């Protein structure tokens, strides 16, 4: 036994010694400082006050719980007030209490068997519900009483919110009635309650209570009886008016009750029973659940920038559930900011103090959160580049590289079409000498690489930088121009195309027309540059699609100005001889000038040619037009045969050949109408 005790003592001493060593070692360990987040760094700067905020989570759950609303609504809808309820409440005592209530209330609180039955039903089956409701009402009733008193409405109307919504601002009926006072959409709009994507003021305790008080005032002016006002609030004034007619003109609620809708028949008795239970709850052993936060312990602050409940919760350490209860009108848990309207945030008073003391930091954090969100068409950097040659502003998408793994059946044309790039570019990026592809090969694809080439300048200067999209950049070039030179600007070429990019590999589905449109040239030019005798092109063929730039410097001369030619009608003119003078048809002149017939007036200005070369004249004369015609004739090229394609028109064909007009094509081919058929042969420059 002694040996055992000695051994145990030894082990205990050894354990203490080892523990002491471990403690000493741990003291020497350097603590790693955790990096603060932006939120923590903001909150670290907050001015602290000594007010404590302790909100009972059970009470918050109570305010958002819909079971009371669902159960109470079902009871009122299906209650049979003619059914006798067994509950220990002497009828004589009940009559005495109802008479006392009637003496100090504008409502007609008279004893009847139906009212006794519903009071006993509530006391027997709904005691726990009323304990919970009385706790919640400590928050809402002062607010209701203030709104009702302003409109001189009986304060007892506050009990109606219990019957309507069980004091749940988020309650929504099957018919769509919403909020504490269960306003329908149209009625809410009629009484000035704002309803949009962010806000539904039918759930706002203050504004909805004001609207309910106004409604009661209006209905009292019609019926002059508060019992009938309550009935009209539930079923509408039209149904109450019908019940009065069906009852032979009687205007007491209990006399017309049988002619009201079924739900309304139990509505006013439920209201009076609720009023009785609140008045005599102590006598029936009902102990209210006390609310931790009362309405007067909260306050509001105007919001100056849009923010979410999540942001407010993170900053002020207020549960999102509590923010929802205190601010039930915000549907998406977002407080919006409109320039023409103010929105308010309700918080416990001590949190209002924190918010007001730290507004700058709070809004800085919300802005930081907003900036983190991805935005459409965002640009990341802006650079201004000084250029001594010309002034242009170009928006350039920076290239993005991706890779594509070749699958069975793929070809270069399909892959190029998928990524909206050229076959020639794919071959260049991957150093391919032919169009053949190996199955499983990874191809490099550069998206957004088809950019206009900018000439390199000797000096560039970065003058500004601001946050825009990571895949876009604005490059601006600025030229200093003397005031004397501003009136005489030499036209500059818009794009410079290098010899290397002047060729195009024909892909599946291509034709000369589509290729010409893509590179903004004419079919005739492609045929001339590639010595083609027809419109047929071979798949995979390499075509020159831009005129080669020579090494020698050539002076760039702008083309002649083109515009419509106008003619002033002289005495003796008629539409026929004017058409003959200018080589146009009567139909053209009528169409160009919107003429319903051949009648024209002296001095009228007529368009006699469309899109013609102008020769230093504003109004055309026969002689000036002939000069223009002679110049055009002198610059004629060799006649070209053009075959009409599907979708062609005289206008689109004339645009393909510089200096050619619709009138020219008509004259050269002896046609009068503008109808063309695919395959039709036209002479150009003939």
What is the number of strand segments?
15
Low-confidence stretches: 16-34, 49-59, 379-397, 450-501, 549-560, 615-620, 626-636
Helical stretch count? 28
Distance between the termini: 132 Å
Q: What would you call the quaternary organization?
A: single chain
Q: Round the mean pLDDT to the nearest integer and report it.
A: 74
The Rg value, from CA coordinates, equals 44 Å
Question: Largest sheet, described in full?
Answer: 3 strands, mixed
Structural class: alpha+beta
Strand order of the largest sheet: 5-9-6
Beta-strand percentage range: 5-15%
Shape: elongated
- Classify the helix fraction into a percent range: 40-55%
Family: Belongs to the transglycosylase Slt family.
Protein name: LysM peptidoglycan-binding domain-containing protein
InterPro entries: LysM, LysM_dom_sf, Lysozyme-like_dom_sf, Transglyc_AS, Transglycosylase_SLT_dom_1
Organism: Flavobacterium algoritolerans
């Amino acid at each position: 036994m002694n040996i055992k005790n000695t051994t145990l003592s030894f082990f205990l001493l050894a354990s203490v010694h080892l523990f002491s060593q471990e403690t000493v070692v741990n003291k020497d360990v350097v603590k790693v400082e955790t990096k603060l987040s932006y939120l923590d760094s903001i909150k670290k700067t907050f001015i602290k006050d000594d007010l404590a905020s302790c909100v009972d989570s059970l009470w918050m759950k109570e305010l958002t719980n819909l079971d009371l609303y669902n159960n109470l609504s079902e009871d009122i809808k299906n209650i049979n007030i003619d059914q006798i309820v067994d509950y220990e409440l002497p009828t004589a005592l009940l009559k005495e209490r109802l008479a006392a209530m009637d003496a100090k209330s504008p409502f007609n609180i008279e004893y009847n068997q139906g009212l006794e039955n519903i009071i006993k039903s509530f006391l027997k089956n709904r005691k726990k519900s009323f304990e919970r409701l009385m706790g919640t009402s400590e928050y809402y009733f002062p607010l209701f009483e203030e709104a009702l008193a302003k409109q001189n409405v009986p304060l007892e109307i506050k009990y109606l919110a219990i019957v309507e919504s069980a004091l749940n601002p988020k309650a929504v009926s099957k018919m769509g009635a919403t909020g504490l006072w269960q306003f329908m959409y149209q009625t809410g709009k009629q009484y000035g309650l704002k309803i949009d994507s962010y806000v539904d003021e039918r759930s706002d305790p203050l504004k909805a209570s004001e609207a309910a008080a106004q409604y009661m005032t209006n209905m009292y002016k019609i019926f002059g009886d508060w019992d009938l006002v309550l009935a009209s609030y539930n079923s509408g004034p039209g149904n109450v008016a019908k019940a009065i007619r069906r009852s032979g003109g009687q205007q007491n609620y209990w006399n017309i009750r049988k002619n009201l809708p079924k739900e309304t028949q139990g509505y006013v008795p439920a209201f009076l029973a609720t009023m009785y239970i609140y008045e005599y709850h102590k006598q029936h052993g009902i102990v209210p659940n006390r609310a931790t936060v009362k309405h007067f312990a909260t306050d509001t602050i105007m919001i100056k920038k849009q923010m979410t409940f999540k942001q407010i919760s993170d900053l002020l350490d207020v549960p999102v559930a509590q923010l929802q209860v205190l601010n039930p009108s915000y549907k998406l848990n977002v407080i919006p900011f409109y320039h023409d309207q103010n929105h308010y945030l309700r918080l416990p008073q001590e949190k209002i103090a924190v918010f007001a003391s730290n507004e700058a930091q709070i809004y800085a954090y919300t802005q930081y959160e907003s900036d983190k969100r991805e935005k459409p068409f965002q640009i990341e950097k802006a650079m201004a580049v000084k250029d001594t040659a010309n002034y242009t502003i170009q928006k350039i998408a920076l290239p993005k590289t991706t890779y594509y793994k070749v699958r069975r059946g793929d070809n270069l044309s399909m892959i190029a079409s998928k990524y909206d790039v050229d076959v020639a570019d794919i071959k260049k990026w991957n150093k391919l000498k032919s169009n053949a592809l190996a199955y499983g090969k990874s191809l490099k694809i550069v998206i957004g690489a088809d950019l206009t080439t900018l000439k390199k300048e000797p000096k560039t200067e970065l003058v500004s930088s601001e946050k825009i999209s990571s895949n876009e950049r604005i490059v601006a070039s600025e030229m200093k121009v003397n005031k004397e030179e501003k009136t005489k600007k030499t036209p500059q070429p818009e794009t410079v195309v290098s010899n290397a990019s002047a060729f195009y590999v024909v892909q599946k589905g291509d034709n000369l027309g589509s290729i010409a449109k893509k590179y903004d040239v004419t079919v005739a030019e492609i045929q001339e540059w590639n010595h083609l005798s027809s419109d047929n092109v071979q798949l995979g063929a390499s075509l020159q699609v831009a005129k080669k730039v020579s090494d020698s410097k050539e002076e760039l001369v702008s083309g002649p100005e083109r515009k419509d030619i106008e003619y002033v009608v002289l005495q003796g003119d008629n539409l026929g001889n004017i058409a003959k003078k200018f080589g146009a048809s009567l139909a053209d002149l009528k169409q160009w000038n919107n003429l319903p017939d051949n009648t024209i007036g002296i001095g009228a200005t007529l368009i006699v040619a469309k899109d013609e070369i102008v020769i230093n004249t504003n109004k055309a004369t026969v002689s000036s037009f002939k000069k223009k015609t002679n110049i055009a004739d002198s610059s004629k090229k060799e006649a070209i045969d053009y075959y009409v394609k599907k979708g062609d028109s005289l206008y689109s064909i004339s645009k393909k050949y510089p200096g050619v007009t619709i009138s020219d094509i008509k004259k050269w081919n002896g046609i009068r109408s503008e109808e063309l058929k695919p395959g039709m042969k036209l002479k150009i420059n003939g």
